[in-house]
Amino acid sequence: MANGDYPVQFSVDYPDRDLDRLTSALRIFTVIPIAILIGTISGWSGSYPSPGGTTVSVTIAGTGLLFLPVLLMLLFRQKYPRWWFDWNLQLQRFGNRVLAYALLMDDRYPSTDDQQYVHLDYPYPDAERDLSRWLPLVKWFLAIPHYVVLFFLYIAGFFCVVFAWFAILFSGRYPRSLFDFVEGVVRWHNRVAGYMYVLVTDRYPPFRLEP
Question: What is the pTM of this model?
């Protein structure tokens, strides 16, 4: 890894071909089955009003990404169990495949195990050498500037996906400039997640869309 590269690496292969217009047009529906599947893994909760005027809450229990156990292990043992690392990485990869599909970045249905066209990677950290024992307690606070920037990037990314949706319907192609921007927003998000939530690096995420 070059000195200028951030440990969390993310990219999506640009589909330099005509995309399926029908599944792209109906993407909000075709993504539902795989979204439900990942929801059962990550967990989901919601509420809805019942006819009697009361509110009914529904919760689906799931394991999701391991954050608190990793934080406690780093704090008290300065250790990051390898199988916890592998679980977080593979679940993030799966989630990003579903996200890329939902964002129209490809028309191939997300696989539950193959990486396909979405690439997310970060090295297994040496907890004693590479990770601080105490920094994970304040990373949520240090990452506040990124929350602010990402809020606006998410809004801009949403409109890019809407424009791309129309472009795919009429031309079959995802405009490269829009694709690169959306890819950059997701890359930024993953860097912040790797720093603050998955705790695989103590290097502060850069403020940039590029690799």
Answer: 0.88
